[in-house]
Amino acid sequence: MSKLNLEQKLLQQEDRDFTNPNNFYPSNFIEHESELDFLSKLGFPTNPFNKKIDTIDKIIESFNNLDEIRKNLSYPIDGLVVKLYENSISSKLGVVGKTPRSWCAMKFAAEEVTTQLLDVVWQVGRTGKLTPVAYLDETELAGTIVKRATLHNYKEVIEKDLYYKDTLIIRKAGDIIPEVIQVLCNLRQFSNNVENNHFDQDGKVKVPTSCPSCGVNLVFSETEVDIYCPNIESCHDQIAGRLSYYCQRNMVNIPGLSDKIIEKFIKKFNTHDVYDLYNLPWQDIKTIEGFGVKSVENLSKSVEKSKNMIDYRFLAALGVDGIGPEVAKLICEKLNEKIYDSK
Q1: Global pTM?
Q2: Which helix (H) or strand (E) holds 133?
Q3: Does residue 136 come out as left (phi exceeding 0), alpha (psi in the -120 to 50 range) or beta?
Q4: Do 161 and 221 reside in the same domain of the chain?
């Protein structure tokens, strides 16, 4: 039996008098470079571009050099991370969320390509905010085929003055989310009688006045950057968005409650809020196409298990504006009490 397996068995013992004397001594490395050397000796791959640098000018030089050669690498990179060399100083600086204050990310300029605008669809989020999404003539960008890109908000659409089949410059924000950054107006060719009700007769993008999900009149935010659906209680897309957000892995985490299943429950059982998720008619769910006895049993267990979640995750999952996981954690620590009692 290996030492690792032996220790695992010892920790599983119910007799704490037997297990308590066992101690764990972590390896305390003075410098970050020592950690990388240790990992390399154990057989873990480490990046060959790691290096110790002692001036800002040399950091910038390394950044520029890496930017030049990154297209020839066998794996994609979007930048580099500068870390303090001494771990003792890093520990004193602490962390923000999960990110050490002693780390600084430097991102390369994102790749940009041109494509044509084919449509603009306004999506309603869990907060009621409408986000315009540009549907594009598909093109390759940063190694993937892109068909859609975000336009962020109402103000962006107004400022960009978009028309059907405009030529756009797009990029991936953070090398992840495609976004429209510029319209090449000099290449614009006006189209009359566009057969798409998301554009007017001259081909200009129309801004909706009513919610595309529930039909209620839209309202402007105080800054007039965004437009919102005020129908919090019964807007289908808002309800689905809030429930989906609540079930996410980094929130309450209810495996099996996918967006498609949530949609089915909203239509079939009028599921509207978190309370409804914990009062689902499991016998009736078995009659829905795609569900079997085993799948219903597994989903029921997932919902039941979620009652024992960490308090701050529950608070964050409610989707209160401005209260994400980190703020929720601070609130719970300050109150020093349970947010709810699942018993």
Answers
A1: 0.75
A2: strand 130-141
A3: beta
A4: yes
What's the domain range around 158? 112-228
pLDDT digits (tens, 9 = 90+) for 99-117: 899 999 999 988 899 999 9
Through-space distance between the first and last CA atoms of the chain, rounded to whole angstroms? 42
Characterize 165-201 residue by residue with b for buried, 16 or more Cβ atoms within 10 angstroms of its Cβ, and e for exposed: bbbbebbbeebeebbbeebeeeebeeeeebeeebbee
Query: How far, in Å, CA of 276 to CA of 254, rounded?
Result: 14
The Cβ-side half-sphere exposure at 78, using a 13 Å CA radius, reads 12
CATH code at position 86: 3.30.1490.70
**Count of all residues that appear for the chain in the document:** 343
Does 217 fall in a domain?
A: yes
Which of 76, 77, 82 is closest to 60 using CA atoms? 82
pLDDT of 28 > 80? The answer is no
